[in-house]
Amino acid sequence: MGEALLKVLLVDDEPFILQGLKILIDWEQEGFEVVKTAANGEEALEYLRGEQVDLIIADIKMPVVTGLELLEKIRGEKISDAHFVILSGYADFEYARKAIRYDCTDYILKPVDREELLKVLNKVQVLRRADNQKKQSSREMEQAYLSRHLIALIQGKFDSVNLEYVKSHMDGASGIRYVEIQMDDDGRAEEISDKEKRGFQRQLYQYCIEFLGLHASHCVFDVSTHEKIYDIGLLYCDAFAKEQGIDGKTYLNRFLEYLIANMHQPVIMLVGKKVQDISNIARSYGNACMLRSFQGFRAKKPIYYYEEEVQVTSGGIVLCKSSLDRLLKAVEQNNHVEIRSAIEQFYGEMISREMTGETMNLNINYLLFQLIHLASEQDDGVNQEEILRLISESSFEKGVMRGSKAHLTRFACEYGDYLSQLRKNVSRGVLGEIEREIRENYAKNITLKSLSEKYYVNSAYLGQLFRKKNGQSFKDYLNNYRMERAADLLLHTDKKIVEIAEEVGYHDLDYFVNRFILVKGCTPAKFRREA
Q: Three-class SS of residue 82?
């Protein structure tokens, strides 16, 4: 798609001059569009107060308001930042000097020469592009600065400076929710590289900005820095939906549909509880984080609301406290026999009390909160909510209901193993072994999951620790190591590229070449040739 046509306003009190200017050149071919002609400066001012243009070409002497007076007025009152070209039959330097004082772009003498006009239009195009780039850069800097203040509020680490800046630069900072938006990896997290995830995240952010329009400042790129979370944060206000005459759920559903349609991939939204003032947005953000971990115990859907998934009804809280405390103790002690017995008791008690699905969810939520707390006491340096979600997903089997007795039993046993590993600190000692395995077996089909099973360490926790130590995921580390070995073989052997691909663990040549380009910036053949 080409650049948008620049809008032009022609101002002259002589109709034949206006007509002559309109037919002197093919405006559209030159990248311009004459959107309005005016007979004097006053008529031009009236138009400019309601419409924006990119270029004004005005006669210097006109009745009512002259060209110079028009220029002086629009600059003085900041009515328009359009480029201004003076048109005059008077070759008088004083006119030009006065026009330049009020930021006049150029000065053309009558009768207008076609080539002269084209030169001026070319100059305006160059200046306008520079203006747009400057404005874009300024907007990006302002958004980045605003985002820093917003993240401080979202994460609850803010002061009056952060709060005042946000309130003065954002519209509608009341009746607000935090909404986490991210791609749904649908179990493909280990197959997608960090670079690809980052690319998806940037695309997602651009589509969010497009949909939000004038409310784009409410969108924050990359709020979370935790393992495997490539998120976009939205500070949703009630005013967004009211402007369109719809309710909040309809607005967010339309937003979600727009993102899915453009990304051609599944997207999920986690919607925190509403807070009345933006100073309390950290509470809503905390809700979204908890929803992230509860996903593993809920039916899969594209949008989750905190009130629906976590909150209780006005009927009051009914907790199977003794059964839950027994189960928590069994998980903490990693006693699988006791875990199974405690879950039998827990489900038996819920059935005997004739609990509804919502109250059953409340009991499981209480259990999850307590498990996260237990894990955080052992290691608060990793994202325990995300690990809980990943363990829940890994313990889920098709044909089994999410949050059912069978699912909860498998999950509780795996989580007990995980807590035991945390206490023994075994994962940290295994990291060196994992790196050795990569060096010795990089050509084989090794995965973090298979290595975690070999060394009896939870894969989600091991993945986060590996990233913390090496600055990249296990998958990226393995791919980069393979590429370094491939580069070494390209430089020091005469082996064919297909042989090298096989030797470093890639059986698909096209896939190997694409990965090599991603890491080294060129094809293997070009790398060998230039080296």
A: coil
Q: State the average pLDDT over residues 497-516.
A: 91
- With residue 340 as reference, give the H or E element that holds it: helix 336-352
pLDDT computed for residue 193 by the predictor = 78
Q: At what angle do helices 336-352 and 357-378 cross, to 10 degrees?
A: 150
Supply the pTM of this predicted model: 0.59
* Per-residue buried b or exposed e for 245-269, using 16+ beta carbons within 10 Å of the residue's own CB: eeebeebbeebbeebbeeeeeebbb
Neighbours of 185 (CB within 10 A): 17
Specify the 3-state DSSP secondary structure of 435.
helix
Cα distance between residue 277 and residue 172, in whole Å: 10
Q: Read off the pLDDT of residues 11-27 as tens digits, 9 standing for 90 and up.
A: 999 999 999 999 999 99
Q: Kindly state the tokens that stand for 310.
A: 């976590």
82 vs 102: CA distance, rounded Å: 12
Closest CA to 38 of 75, 68, 11, 65: 11
Tens of pLDDT, residue by residue over 275-310, are 988 888 988 998 888 788 777 777 788 999 988 876
Distance CA 489, CA 262 (A): 41
Per the CB < 8 A criterion, the answer to whether 222 and 202 are in contact is no
